[in-house]
Automatic annotation (TrEMBL):
<protein>
    <recommendedName>
        <fullName>cyclic-guanylate-specific phosphodiesterase</fullName>
        <ecNumber>3.1.4.52</ecNumber>
    </recommendedName>
</protein>
<keyword id="KW-0472">Membrane</keyword>
<dbReference type="GO" id="GO:0071111">
    <property type="term" value="F:cyclic-guanylate-specific phosphodiesterase activity"/>
</dbReference>
<feature type="domain" description="EAL">
    <location>
        <begin position="29"/>
        <end position="282"/>
    </location>
</feature>
<keyword id="KW-0973">c-di-GMP</keyword>
<keyword id="KW-1133">Transmembrane helix</keyword>
<keyword id="KW-0812">Transmembrane</keyword>
Length: 283
């Protein structure tokens, strides 16, 4: 009976190994990455820009570049559908290079036409650990004749935990070029509280999962309050993402949060729409 049981277990294990659904999922993944590579070549990847404003003055602080896949038949594909999968392969290196170059090119175009905003770019864990990442940024800034202070890199907490020493070194090299480093999605994922004071960062971006629940949810209020105080005590600016209404904006003002970003101010916009928005907002 025992032998029969072992055979049964092995059979079920084999059935898992050859499960056609899993095989299909893998094939689908490979084909998605293939299509993504093709999309990059065909110019189907584009950046949209979402403004960030200073809460007390209302002044425009900058814009975040957010990637979009403009698929010819499937329409606009949001980054959650392809970035996580690209991050599991070397394709994310190519995508980040595209995003950086496109954002820096846009910066240079906007600077020349009097649109004085800094641009932030989302960086994946892998990118920072990749040798030559800082050199790539330097090369692109030089190519477009821009100084680093107009560029901000948004890094998630989790990515800082992988190789702390190396990451701190790379970040220090970047900040020597006056590039601004911010912690994205603060309060989610792994906590890097232990390293926060060692990192050459200047902005804490508090995750929208807390922001959206203000001001009714007392837990979210405590976390938001604490995050703003923590940021200020560390000499950092605090920014809230996902600000969807006036009530939240006002509440953030009373907490002393420095900046806000969200649909209340504007959705992520394609470059020409961003320029339109900028003209109306600033003018
Ligand atoms: P994230 O960096 O946390 O970006 C914020 C997300 O919230 C964006 O979604 C933005 O469109 C959305 N958002 C902004 N304001 C509001 C609001 O008021 N309400 C709501 N409900 N949502 C708001 P998006 O553009 O779909 O991007 C999702 C995530 O994909 C980003 O999260 C980021 O982690 C990743 N991502 C986007 N672009 C890039 C990129 O170029 N490179 C990498 N590595 N990741 C990217
Ligand atoms: Ca971000
Ligand atoms: Ca977020
Ligand atoms: Ca995120």
């Amino acid at each position: 009976a025992e032998a029969a049981l072992i055979v049964a277990k092995q059979t079920s294990r084999n059935m898992v190994a050859y499960n056609p659904a899993i095989k299909m999922a893998t094939e689908e993944n490979i084909s998605l990455l293939g299509q993504l590579k093709h999309a990059l070549k065909m110019g189907q990847l584009a950046l949209h820009y979402q403004p960030k404003v200073e809460i007390d003055t209302g002044k425009i602080y900058g814009a975040e570049a957010l990637i979009r896949w403009e698929h010819p038949s499937r329409g606009m594909i949001p980054p959650v559908k392809f970035i996580p999968r690209a991050e599991q392969s070397t394709l994310i290196d190519v995508i980040t290079e595209f995003v950086l170059e496109e954002a820096i090119r846009q910066l240079s175009v906007w600077q020349k036409s009097g649109i004085d905003v800094s641009i932030s770019v989302n960086i994946s864990t892998r990118n920072l650990l990749q040798p030559g990442f800082t050199d790539l940024v330097v090369r692109l800034l030089n190519q477009y004749d821009l100084s680093g202070e107009l560029l901000e890199l948004e890094i998630t907490e989790g990515s800082l935990m992988v190789d702390v020493e190396h990451t701190i070194d790379e970040l220090k090299r970047l900040t020597r070029l006056n590039i601004v480093i911010s912690i994205d999605d603060f309060g989610t994922g792994y906590s890097s509280l232990q390293y926060l004071h060692q990192l050459p960062i200047s902005v804490l971006k508090i995750d929208q999962s807390f922001v959206r629940r203000l001001p009714e949810d007392q837990g979210a209020v405590y976390i938001m309050e604490a995050a703003v105080v923590l940021a200020h005590n560390l000499g950092l600016k605090a920014i809230a993402e996902g600000v969807e209404n006036k009530q939240i904006y006002q509440f953030l003002a009373t907490l002393g949060c420095d900046m806000a970003q969200g649909y209340l101010i504007a959705k992520p916009l394609p470059p020409e729409k961003f320029v339109e928005w900028y003209g109306q907002y600033a003018g």
